[in-house]
Amino acid sequence: MNSRNHIAVIGAGLIGSLLSIYLAKRGYKVSVFERRADMRVSNTEAGRSINLALSTRGIKALEEVGLADVLKSVAIPMHGRMMHDLQGNLSFLPYGREGQYINSISRSGLNEVLMNEAEKHNVTFHFNNKCLAVDFEQTSLTLHDLNSKQNVTKEFDLIIGADGAFSAIRSAMQITDRFNYAQHYIEHSYKELHIPAGENNKHLLEKNALHIWPRESFMMIALPNPDGSFTCTLFLANQGSNSFNSLTTSEDISTFLTRNFPDAVKLIPGLINQYHTNPTSSLVMIKCFPWVKNKTLVIGDAAHAIVPFYGQGMNAGFEDCRILNNLLSKHNDNWPIVLEEFQTIRKPDTDAIAELALSNFIEMRDLVADPKFLLRKKIEAKLHELYPDKWIPLYSMVTFNDSIRYSEALAMGRKQQMIMDKILTTPEINATWQQLNFKEIVSQLER
Amino acid sequence: MNSRNHIAVIGAGLIGSLLSIYLAKRGYKVSVFERRADMRVSNTEAGRSINLALSTRGIKALEEVGLADVLKSVAIPMHGRMMHDLQGNLSFLPYGREGQYINSISRSGLNEVLMNEAEKHNVTFHFNNKCLAVDFEQTSLTLHDLNSKQNVTKEFDLIIGADGAFSAIRSAMQITDRFNYAQHYIEHSYKELHIPAGENNKHLLEKNALHIWPRESFMMIALPNPDGSFTCTLFLANQGSNSFNSLTTSEDISTFLTRNFPDAVKLIPGLINQYHTNPTSSLVMIKCFPWVKNKTLVIGDAAHAIVPFYGQGMNAGFEDCRILNNLLSKHNDNWPIVLEEFQTIRKPDTDAIAELALSNFIEMRDLVADPKFLLRKKIEAKLHELYPDKWIPLYSMVTFNDSIRYSEALAMGRKQQMIMDKILTTPEINATWQQLNFKEIVSQLER
Question: Measured between CB atoms, does A185 come within 8 Å of chain B?
Fold first, then answer.
């Protein structure tokens, strides 16, 4: 392929839009096909979650396409987790070192900035175009135009499916020979609830934190929005006690929410109405391999959708784009080599973040309220302070880093966990942890 | 539902045909829709593997519908594994006790008997009918008649998808909310080769055995056919050395097969031509849950396709039918209760046989040639002889039994393996195994 070649990107979401910028900047002709209407002119669909946590890996990719500054200016820094107990008492746990934070950002706002930027690079967006079929031999797409009701089949030099967890491109791959595929729905689903702004757009909870109401078998979180409001997300099991299925009457819902989230409930007007009106959404994990069939690739959620508990879904998808672009530079746009190398090196990393995201749900809903967990975080912070390059807490390796691969972070995190598990069995550790031999502890990492 | 109700079965394969007999015998009106032509009048497609191993669980179901005797009369008993080494030397390892055997049976012959029997019970078969869509709310099917080229949508009281590993019914379920699904292709594929009969339809290898050429990273097997021929199945990796991908030239293929299967190669006329002409087929495992959406059920391979190495795919599907029928009797044909109970009790068992089938590949291609493995089998046979109800070898629990669930067999097999692993570390065990305290060994099972 040469840079005059024509690439079809399926999906004008976050990943498809960012990818189209990268490709257009390399000189390719890029056409993006999107099933939905243009979110910039039509508000028919609000999208999925309202806000997202943008962190270092995502920012790195935005920097490369020249958008990091504009986006960071509208994002809200969240320096740590603010835990709310059953009495409404607060405790704060920083995410990393002083000055390290994640960013609450509007999904639709970010998406619009990316689409506008892509258009500046002559990317063309074709909305209301649904992908009906893919021919992997001809590298052709059959698209249904929802406006004209016409079907058109077009050939391209390359097709990239960035069309999300329910990808049409991946569905077509699924029925080809020797395509491994798994979709797994976790036991919990979620529902968003809205805390409006106070007077003068004031945030009614601490603005610069991610709020968590950890309740062991379930939890609620809240992220700040620029208009002073918060978007809460309630995570409940589908079945059993305290589940979306068991809570049906307004009275039960009200009793349950008031008992478990007393301070939040006061801030949510029309709580019961919101609960009944807002959809309950499932949480699915997707794994597949290969990601490449001839000259068609899947990327982002289409290749590796994960649960949201590490705040890494979008960041991992943006990192996909950055890595693909790096490989194109390394191999002078030799696509067959690039595609093969991309899926080979990237697959173990997306498997790793899938696992980390799932286990972080346990940490968020359960462990953050556990004194042992808090002590562990304190000791790890100390180790990181004394040996900043040697002992990097797992959360920081994943969130505040773009040079450690997810799979390396997972492996190192396991090693750290074994060391910390042992330390926490030390008698009187709560009182004596500051006398630990930190140098010796760090040296254990190298064994 | 009452017995006047109309049930659609999708797929006229082994499971769909047997299931239709069970249901018709209960009084239901049963219509079977099959994508292919009627195999009894059209030979356009030979089907998949030519022969299958029918064993106790499958026979039990055939007995219930009154077909066991007729089918056993055309089946060929296989009393054990006949191993062929690199020099063509043979060694025989029985499957069970004296008089226990599995049966080589023709897939198409068995299928035809089942269809003919179903028609006697007024089951109607509709061939060349492809399922295009399922409406789980209306319990309706949209079928495309390949002859008339017409699409028809019909409502039923119940729909059962017995349409195999690439089930159209399951594909429709896959895009409903919270449906867990995985398809996994193993590294090896297979190719069938044919050993014709000798003079007077004489079998040119021992007739009453399943032949194995175990070669560690690959293997070949052969099953006898009633006409005196054998169907060989060569299992090779797809990639790497000694793989379907690496063996491309006729010279390489000939050298490889002659070196590894010298005695078999002499019996296969036109070996290279057969190798090039016969297809290479993939091996896929399918898991999904739930199996039920409203009044639609998937069963057999459509719900739980497994690899063929335990010879249990068909037997497990037949057992599905038997268990479903038992539950209908138990609950007076109260289908909502039956469907829920069926998937709940049966899922752990099909997961177990999936795992057993995969690990038996290792045993067949590798361990059966290992002296330690043979000693283990000898000790286990002795334990079984002395305590026939207490120590039942895993293979026998799976193959020569219909009252031990697959999940129970797997759990018991693990316990046995731990005990045997320890015994085999005994010094001089080869010479002294007959002096073992067998009573004490068996008592370990109860700890």
Answer: yes
